[in-house]
Design a protein that fits this description.
This protein is an all-beta fold. Helices cover about 0% and strands about 55% of the residues.
């Protein structure tokens, strides 16, 4: 059974930092691209960042470029999202997701972790 469990969310002041973690189980972790998405209150879910199966390729949503960094540790089956210079508009539920190499869809999702940035 595939499970993705996010942690590390919370309340932070604008300008602060948080690091989110996502622990995977039940998958061959090195065969999956991993992504972070977020859903702000009252808005659609949006792409935040993604990382290739071995970590050599990353890409980011425009609104987080230069502030967020995605990374992964395949030995520990973890993916991280380091968030710096947080803004109130970063407030959202953040989701971890997994996409099997060679497929177009993120098939597995975590339950989400709340990030609230106070201004």
């Amino acid at each position: 059974q595939v499970q993705l469990v996010e942690s590390g969310g919370g309340l932070v002041q604008a300008g602060g930092s948080l690091r989110l973690s996502c622990a995977a189980s039940g998958v061959t972790f090195g065969s999956y691209y991993m992504g972070w998405f977020r859903q702000p209150p009252g808005k659609e879910r949006e792409f935040v960042a993604a990382i290739s199966s071995r970590g050599g390729i990353t890409n980011y949503g425009e609104s987080v470029k230069g502030r967020f960094t995605i990374s992964r540790d395949n030995a520990k089956m973890l993916v991280y999202l380091q968030m710096n210079s947080l803004k109130s508009e970063d407030t959202a539920v953040y989701y971890c997701a997994a996409r099997l190499i060679g497929t177009a869809r993120y098939a597995y999702w975590g339950q989400g972790t709340q990030v609230t940035v106070s201004s």
